[in-house]
């Protein structure tokens, strides 16, 4: 009797699984995925916009390679680039793999459908001399030390920004977490940033930076009052002071209560109509640009954004305590311009780097993330093996690492290099 019940239960599960649609498979994958929240948000958008309208209602068991190829061709016909076509295939493969793991299908229908490869533009990397010019153009000591760390350790931006004082180990740094920026919409606690307790590939690594540089990092932490569990490069020490003229801090200490509105009084707009100060109507129709009316429109915009976020999340986002007496803690959002952890955003560091590149007057524009390319290329130029470089970069094998190895400075001609190395290139022998 028990055996019959187990058989019936198993048969019922198989029947339910056989009716699994692509949309249901994607929902199952998304519920259990360990992908970075920001990356997952991008995948979700691609599925909703490009995959679900075409294949979402189809049963996974009925999806053929022809259906997958037709989807990709449809995207190409709509003008989609190679990157979007490739990501659409990745998203569909994830849904199908979830179905395969649950016994719905035996093979992935996406396996034999080729996707366009990303075009790798092989350009040169920044030279050590050019890097020094860019580093010296950075505005703060913290930014300059962070730039040194990037080229000495080859860390990803998120890995370097997540480094804590306890990660400095003798002559090396321990890379065991990364700074993620899911945004308040996709984070679990409503914060913009999150420290993920793992690296991109899920493996910790120890990157030797030398005793001298490790001592510089420890001295920096000591002089800056950075505790063992604090990030080594908080926003307050890396970013330049906020300019009140260019980036005014929108902190309104006096709420627009009825009593304050009565105190502010009214004014006559350019159309001859009387308006109340400190109101949206006064700003929009009355054309008032005084601080009280700007506060009204600012608070309205913030409230609408908050309501929209709550509708999208389906719950209420956490709210912060009001800062008392107009003073903000050193690592708070009000003092650093960065919420929650008081860290530097990827965009914030990139803007700082690009401004320094312009100030240095280089004849090309290396991006902030390409310090990893400089790390790999400089070591390769110095004779370090690809396997050792791959370990420092956190790659599982050296195939990915070879993409990072680029010419240092203007690329030389192969024949000229060989002639120089062999002492040849003069007149031909008689």
UniProtKB/TrEMBL annotation:
The keyword DNA-binding applies. It comes from the Bacteria. Keywords: DNA recombination, DNA-binding. Residues 17-100 form the Core-binding (CB) domain. Residues 303-334 are annotated as: Disordered. SUPFAM superfamilies: DNA breaking-rejoining enzymes. Residues 312-324 have a biased composition (Basic and acidic residues). PROSITE patterns: CB (PS51900), TYR_RECOMBINASE (PS51898). GO terms for biological process: DNA integration; DNA recombination. Pfam families: Phage_int_M, Phage_integrase. Belongs to the 'phage' integrase family. This is Phage integrase family protein.
């Amino acid at each position: 009797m028990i055996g019959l019940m187990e058989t019936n239960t198993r048969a019922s599960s198989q029947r339910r699984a056989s009716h699994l649609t692509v949309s249901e498979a994607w929902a199952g994958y998304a519920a259990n995925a360990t992908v970075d929240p920001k990356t997952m948000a991008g995948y979700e958008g691609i599925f909703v916009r490009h995959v679900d309208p075409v294949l979402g209602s189809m049963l996974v068991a009925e999806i053929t390679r022809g259906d997958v190829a037709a989807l990709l061709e449809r995207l190409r016909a709509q003008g989609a680039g190679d990157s979007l076509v490739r990501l659409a295939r990745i998203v569909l493969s994830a849904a199908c793999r979830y179905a395969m793991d649950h016994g719905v299908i035996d093979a992935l229908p996406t396996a034999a459908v080729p996707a366009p490869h990303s075009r790798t533009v092989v350009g040169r990397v920044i030279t050590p001399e050019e890097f020094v010019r860019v580093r010296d153009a950075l505005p703060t000591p913290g930014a300059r030390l962070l730039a040194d760390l990037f080229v000495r350790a080859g860390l990803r931006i998120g890995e370097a920004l997540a480094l804590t004082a306890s990660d400095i180990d003798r002559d090396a740094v321990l890379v065991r977490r990364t700074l993620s920026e899911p945004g308040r919409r996709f984070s679990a606690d409503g914060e913009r940033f999150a420290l993920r307790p793992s690296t991109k590939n899920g493996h910790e690594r120890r990157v030797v930076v030398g005793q001298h540089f490790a001592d510089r990092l420890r001295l920096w932490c000591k002089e800056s009052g950075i505790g063992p569990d604090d990030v080594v490069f908080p926003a307050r020490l890396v970013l330049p002071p906020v300019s009140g003229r260019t980036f005014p801090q929108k902190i309104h200490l006096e709420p627009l209560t009825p009593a304050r509105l009565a105190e502010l009084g009214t004014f006559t707009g350019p159309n001859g109509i009387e308006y109340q100060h400190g109101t949206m109507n006064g700003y929009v129709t009355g054309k008032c640009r005084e601080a009280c009316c700007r506060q009204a429109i600012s608070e309205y915009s913030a409230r609408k954004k908050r309501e929209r976020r709550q509708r999208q999340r389906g719950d209420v986002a956490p709210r912060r305590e009001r800062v008392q007496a107009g003073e903000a803690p050193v690592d708070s959002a009000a003092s650093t311009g960065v919420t929650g952890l008081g860290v530097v955003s990827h965009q914030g560091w990139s803007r700082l780097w690009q401004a320094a590149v312009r100030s240095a007057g280089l004849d090309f524009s290396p991006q902030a993330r390409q310090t990893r390319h400089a790390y790999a290329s400089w070591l390769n130029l110095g004779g370090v093996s690809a396997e050792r470089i791959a370990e420092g970069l956190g790659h599982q094998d050296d195939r990915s690492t070879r993409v990072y190895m680029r010419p240092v400075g203007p690329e030389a001609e192969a024949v000229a290099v060989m002639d120089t190395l062999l002492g040849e290139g003069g007149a031909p022998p008689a």
